[in-house]
Design brief:
The structure is a homodimer. In chain A, a hairpin with a 2-residue loop joins strand 2 and strand 3. In chain A, strands 6, 7, 8, 13, 14, 16, 17 and 22 form an 8-stranded mixed beta sheet that branches. In chain A, strands 9, 20, 21, 25, 26 and 27 form a 6-stranded mixed beta sheet that branches. In chain A, strands 4-3-2-1-5 form a 5-stranded antiparallel beta sheet. The N and C termini of chain A lie far apart (about 55 Å). The first copy, chain A, is of the alpha+beta class and about 425 residues long. Chain A contains 11 helices and 27 strands. Chain A is about 20% helix and about 25% strand. Chain A folds into 2 domains: about 120 residues, SH3 type barrels, CATH 2.30.30.230; about 300 residues, Fumarylacetoacetase-like, C-terminal domain (Fumarylacetoacetate hydrolase, domain 2, Alpha-Beta Complex), CATH 3.90.850.10. Chains A and B meet through strand 7, strand 10 and helix 7 of A and strand 7, strand 10 and helix 7 of B.
Chain lengths: ~425, ~425
């Protein structure tokens, strides 16, 4: 990609040029919002959103993509393919650029709404949801807690481990999560298991990749062609009930411990916006095996990962009552993952499994090498054994009712505007009363 | 349900009264077929199918359900709820009964097609697919192969173990399955894993329950109310690649070993047709723990299971060339399951997980107590160690290319016509060539 001078990225919308906002002209993440009882697609720009339905109605968009931009969800646009994605992006970039002619700018201005006052909705219909386990730091640290002798299974460095999640309970950012009930391990070997609200509710900091192009059943996607099948990304919080998980997960994996809710950022950052933040695949430590050929591509090794800084914040009822800002729990980076997105996708389809437009492939918890870069409380508190002290004097082993978890992602590189991914946040509601169980 | 004399079940269609056919007047399973380039809903009767779209167009159906019967899939009809399901069933039973007036009979006759000449399609859009592990005989026998010291994990008798399957690769009966490629365990501890076509392709004999009524996220369905949420059943074959499975499944469960294909019978038997075949829950052996209260209902214990005889047949290329009939591999019965369908559904929603109309809950492999009643080759051949001898002189440890697997289900009880579930069959195609990988 040719380098541009910073002025190339100037918009006529002042807030888009303020680096404090994460939605500059080079970002343009997709979303959906409610307007007059209808769901319209939009892109974020500065502190505003641009209504794509209105842009199409006002003839600001090429005819070939206008109908897809007037759909309620992004799936029809995704189905048009990468050329159409680029065409729309180029059109919107030109329209919002400082050099656009006044007449078009005025029409676009009429399609702007403040994000602050908008109700954001789920922009993508998600048919299937797959969750991976791509952070070796997460897998090792969790493994150490439960299997000190063998933290990593022998397959980890060969197989991008993954499992199927539940698509029906994926929620957009902002919807509160109800603490789930579940079965837990008996206190003594022959005792009855417990059943009640989970006592170890956790978050997991993840990145979600949206599939933008499908593959027919029986036709694998080679690792070298994987990137053209990915439309964009969101932050994702894979809520987890650790006490339920540890009792139910053998031998078929997590189930009710995870499927009660998953939160995604409502803004979908297109892969095109992330080009300047591409990064080499995480170097494998000496002695680690090379990935099998079907997982290897030199282009992917060179630039298949992403330099995205991630942060997790916690805000408790007490913190909000005392007007304290959210507390930073951890920092990590997508670059630290052991497997690249293209490797996850190539592996997923290596047996012919068909991915569909709108499917999510999530990374699994993104933890870095240091203990403070752990992407969940299970790691940060050593499964509750070492509670975290908060500025209020409160402590947390796991999440309490009223706690709000906020995931943030930031992309920074010299000579390019800073992007922030759409925020992913949700608060915990107390469990339902037994009478409704 | 009041007892009827056998003549109460007589249809004017002679084939419907022949007990050799499994689709008597009391069955009326739902399906979909292709006609003049369109997909129409239908029910099976005798050797024919009745086009529901045509019935609605000819004003044979009540107005409140006519539009749903003219949809391409069953989901809109399911969304109308149990009263509408009963209304449609009563209307069709009357219409096909020997006592119907000639004028209506003649209009119905015009909507009949021979099943033999029809192309059957997938009648239900399946949003999510959950697979359980409800046969203790299967779990114990598989456990013995891999963990002789501890065949069953301590959770098995308390938790209906389940995991999420892949909905995108569910296929209707008759579509051949391509042998998948995959990664397999290295031959020696520090060696590279293998990658190629699976050498241990297996079937799994299962029953699928279709969710007919959804529950909102956060609202569990009590075990006593579960049955009203189930619309009907199909046979289901959960194809499995055992070599891929044993290498990938720790710690998050099966993934690529299962998600390349799942075959369902195209005929959906409504729960109403199964009322005469209800059976008590399988009695728990002395010493087994009682299920927790959220999994217990006296009505469910009394009649929450189903008396459905199941059979698996194998037909090889050589058998077909020699005009030999398919070979019976095993026999089992749904009654042998450790958990009832209502318990599976109550458990699935006990944490608030939302089920959607059209979702499948599958039982997992249905094996009986005897070794000959095992529902997969993994059990029948002791993971390939004891190959099965076929009448042709061939042997099978696992499935070969060209093999066809046929699942059948039969319901029999005195004074009631015999039903057979729609057949679930598919053949194995050889793996794709490496050049397309």
């Amino acid at each position: 990609m040719a380098k541009r001078t910073p002025s190339a990225h100037q918009s006529w919308l002042p807030a888009a040029n303020d680096s404090a906002n994460g939605f500059p002209l080079t970002h343009l993440p997709y979303g959906a919002f409610e307007t007059e009882g209808q769901q319209h697609l939009c892109v974020a720009i500065g502190t505003h959103l641009l209504d794509l339905y209105e842009c199409a109605a006002s003839k600001l968009l090429p005819r070939s993509i206008a109908a897809a931009c007037q759909a309620a969800i992004l799936n029809p646009l995704m189905a048009l393919g990468p050329r159409s994605w680029a065409l729309l992006r180029d059109t919107l970039t030109e329209l919002l650029h400082i050099s656009v002619e006044t007449s078009r700018r005025q029409v676009a201005e009429a399609a702007l709404h403040s994000i602050a006052g908008a109700t954001l909705l789920k922009a993508i219909h998600i048919p299937d949801y797959t969750d991976f386990y791509a952070s070796i730091h997460h897998a090792t640290r969790v493994g150490k807690l439960f299997r000190p002798d063998q933290p990593l299974f022998p397959n980890y460095k060969h197989v991008p481990i993954g499992y199927h999640g539940r698509a029906s309970s994926i929620l957009p950012s902002g919807i509160p999560i109800q603490r789930p009930h579940g079965q837990t391990c008996p206190d003594k070997p022959d005792g009855a298991p417990g059943f009640g609200p989970t006592k170890s509710l956790d978050y997991e900091l993840e990145l979600a990749f949206y599939i933008g192009q499908s593959n027919p059943l029986g036709t694998p996607i080679p690792v070298g062609k994987a990137s053209s099948h990915i439309f964009g990304i969101s932050l994702l919080n894979d809520w987890s009930a650790r006490d339920i998980q540890s009792w139910e997960y053998q031998p078929l994996g997590p189930f009710l411990a995870k499927n009660f809710a998953t939160t995604v950022s409502p803004w979908v950052t297109p892969m095109a916006a992330l080009e300047p933040f591409r990064a080499p695949a995480s170097p494998r430590p000496k002695g680690d095996p090379k990935p099998l050929p079907y997982l290897r591509s030199s282009a992917d090794q060179r630039s298949g990962s992403l330099d995205i800084k991630l942060e997790v914040f916690l805000s408790t009822n007490t913190m909000r009552a005392n007007k304290l800002p959210p507390f930073l729990l951890s920092r990590s980076n997508v670059q630290d993952l052991y497997w690249t997105p293209a490797q996850l996708l190539a592996h997923h389809t290596s047996n012919g499994c068909n991915l569909q437009i709108g499917d999510i492939l999530a990374t699994g918890t993104i933890s870095g090498p240091s203990p403070t870069s752990a992407g969940c409380l299970l790691e940060l508190t050593s499964n509750g054994a070492k509670p975290i002290a908060l500025p209020t004097g409160e402590t947390r082993s796991f999440l309490s009712d009223g706690d709000e978890v906020i995931l943030r992602g930031t992309c920074e590189t010299p000579d390019h505007p800073r992007l922030t991914l759409g925020e992913c946040r949700a608060a915990i509601l107390r469990a339902h009363s037994p009478s409704t169980a």
